[in-house]
Structures are given as structure tokens and as C-alpha cells.
Amino acid sequence: MTNLIKRASAEARAFGRKQGGKQAGKPGRRKLERDDDELANAPRIDAPKKPRFAPVTFSEEGGVRYLHFGTEWVQGGMRLKKPDHIELEYAQQMMAWLLFIETPERIVQLGLGAAALTKFCYRFLKRAKVEAVELNPAVVIAARAMFELPYDDARLTVTERDAWEFVNDRANHGTIGALQIDVYDATARGPVLDSVSFYRACRACLTPEAGVVTINLFGDHPSFVRNMRHLSEAFDHRVIALPEVHDGNRVALAFAGPALDVPFAALETRAKLIEAQLGLPARKWVKGLAESAGVTMKGSFSL
Fold this sequence. Notes:
Blueprint: E1 4-5, H1 10-15, H2 29-40, E2 57-61, E3 64-68, E4 74-79, H3 89-93, E5 106-110, H4 116-124, E6 129-134, H5 137-146, E7 156-160, H6 163-168, E8 178-181, H7 196-205, E9 211-218, H8 222-234, E10 239-241, E11 249-256, E12 261-263, H9 264-278, H10 282-293, E13 300-302
Parallel strand pairs: 5-6, 5-8, 6-7, 8-9
Antiparallel strand pairs: 1-2, 2-3, 3-4, 9-11, 10-11, 12-13
């Protein structure tokens, strides 16, 4: 694993640093007693607690900059010479919804990370309004300072908000065509939100005519089985996971809207168009869907 780059903490920029100074002399006993008397009669104020986040750190290797949350686990990456390109294979698979729907009016990412998906959708899917929801303000700062995420405009919005609150906000229900979920903490042992209730709220956010959720899961971990079970319950068993890629990542797709019955030949044709226009390895996704479904490429993808 690569060594972490020592840089100014993005977390410190987000929350501010405590200013250091000379250590004051010890107060006298009489002053302490007087202060104690005054404090005893003072009203008690419960200060709001700030969320505690792991430090945001970075590393570089082979022309790729990586995002970490204070551990060796990679939370995202960017090739320095291709900042709008999706570098990591599992992140490319998060775009597999393109096989099934045209570019929707609204695309949302839950969990910003290194902003690869957000930047790609913003740069290449011009018809869509692109939004990212991220709880940790330090991640937002890092994405803009280190991963070339543009600032908000008429088509791009980055919101500092809890993903749970976002999907349960009725204003978002029925409005999202593609929802991409990558909500991990520093331990990277599975999504931090994975209940049936959470996934049902995600489904409620999808447009009724057709909508797709893609979720980054950790295949080599007990959380994978739990997440697939909860997704299956929330989406009426209309869920499939692509084969595992590097470091154990598995991307699941969950569908809302009419039942699917698409010949693999049609998916192949669509995949070739995606590869030509967007440079994503879409034919690998089609083969992966057939493998996961246990069918041949001569048949249809039904779900």
C-alpha cells in the first residue's frame, strides 16, 4: 500500500484549528474558589456535539492520487492527467445504470469521496442536474482542493447533509433517475447505512417510470450478504450484483419501475455506444450481468 502524503489537514480547514499560545500561570487558590462559587450558580448549557470524522488524507502512486480517511483503505482516486476520468474499476461499474436508462434529469451521489462520479456525470452527461450529498465538510474541501471538483453552478450541487435525512426528505421522492450510493467510513467494512428502511427510502426517491440505484458493496465481508438481503426486500427482489473487482468491491444494481426483459444483444449494442461516447468498459458490465444472472449472452436479462 502506498505511503500517505503529509498535507495540511482538510478536516482542520473545515472545523478550524485551536490557536496555540503561551501557557498561563497557575491560578491562585482564592481565585479557584471564587470561580467555583460563580460556576455553581451559572446556568448549564448543553453544547451541540459536532460529528466526529476520521482525518482526510492522501497518497499518490503511478500518477494517481488517492483519498483516504486516515487509514490505508482507498476511498477514491484520480489520475492526475485525466481528472474527469473515472480511474477505479468499481467506480466505473457504478455507472452501469447507463445500460438501462437514458440520461435522467437528476443524478445523485450519496457519499462524495474523491468526486469521480460527480465530476464525470457533470462533465459528460450534460442533460442532467448532478448532485452529491456528503456529511463530512472536510471531504468536500478535499474534493475541491485535491481532486478538481468544480464549484456549484446551475447544474452542479454539493450538499453537506446526512444521506439518511436526504432520502427520507419527501421533497426528493420520485425525482431521481440514477442514485449512486457509496457511503463508507474509515474502516471500509461495509456501508454505514444499510437497513431495509434506508433502502426503501432510496427506492422512494427514484422516478416512477424507471429508476436505478447502484451501490458499492464489499464482497469479501459479511456485510455483503446482509446488504443484498436488505436490498432484495426493499426492491422486491429486483437486485443483482456484478462480479467482484479489485480489493473486494462489488457493485449492486437495484431497479424501480416496469419489469425488465432486455435481450443481451440489445445490451451489447447499448454498451458499444457507451464505450464509444464515454470511454467506459460497458461490455464488461454486460458480461458480468450474464455471469451473475447465470444465463448465456444468447438470452435476455430479466428482472
